[in-house]
Amino acid sequence: MLSKELQLPALELNKVTQSILAERRNASRIPVIKSAKLLVGEGFSQGVYNCLVLDESSGGVLVDLGAVFTIPEEMIVHLTGGAMRRARRCWAVGTKVGLEYIGEQLVSDEAVQQMGEIAKLIGAQGLPAGIAAMRARQFFNHGDLREAAEEAEAAYYKLEALLRDR
């Protein structure tokens, strides 16, 4: 327990937090409220943290995880309905984390839109139609997507054969 001399009133503690979160970057941030996922771990597929993006700029985002977590230094930020970017943790205070983008966008906004259309196509016309559409787009040059699609296609045809041959 803290001694009385070291305890800060809630108002002063809030001022300390605000000073830590103060603007210290070159690119101006735009306040937003968006849902996102932080993909972490080996191949960025070991863990997923749901979060809210509170503000963003061309160089990074401020996210709120809703609870205190220890997250690794590097991860992928996947904005719901938007782009995927590699990011580096710059700082963390409580549930808030400042992330700086590393390199170029991994999946373009246009590709994300096309992926959404393919998801609807799969629902309406089935997996083979969706796989054909992804092949036509070279699986968006995304190795994991290609692998998952080919595994799903193989499983689909195996299941179809088992059901048909009974």
Structure description:
The chain has 166 residues and is of the alpha+beta class. It has two domains: 15-107, predicted glycosyltransferase like domains (Thrombin, subunit H, Beta Barrel), CATH 2.40.10; 109-164, no CATH class. It has four helices and six strands; from the N terminus they run H-E-E-E-E-E-E-H-H-H. It has helices at 10-20, 109-125, 127-136, 143-164; strands at 30-40, 47-57, 60-64, 74-79, 84-93, 96-107. Strands 1-2-3-6-5-4 form a six-stranded antiparallel barrel. Strand 4 and strand 5 (84-93) form a beta hairpin. Helix 2 (109-125) runs antiparallel to helix 3 (127-136) and helix 3 packs antiparallel against helix 4 (143-164). The longest helix has 22 residues, at 143-164. The termini are far apart. 13% of the residues are buried.
Q: Give the low-confidence spans.
A: 1-11
Classify the fold: give the CATH topology of the largest domain.
Answer: Thrombin, subunit H
CATH architecture of the largest domain: Beta Barrel
Number of strands: 6
First-residue to last-residue Cα separation: 70 Å
Number of helices: 4
Q: Quote the average pLDDT.
A: 83
Q: Provide the domain count.
A: 2
What would you call the shape?
elongated
CATH H-level superfamily of the largest domain: predicted glycosyltransferase like domains
H and E order:
HEEEEEEHHH
Q: Helices and strands: which structural class?
A: alpha+beta
Name of the level-1 CATH class of the largest domain: Mainly Beta
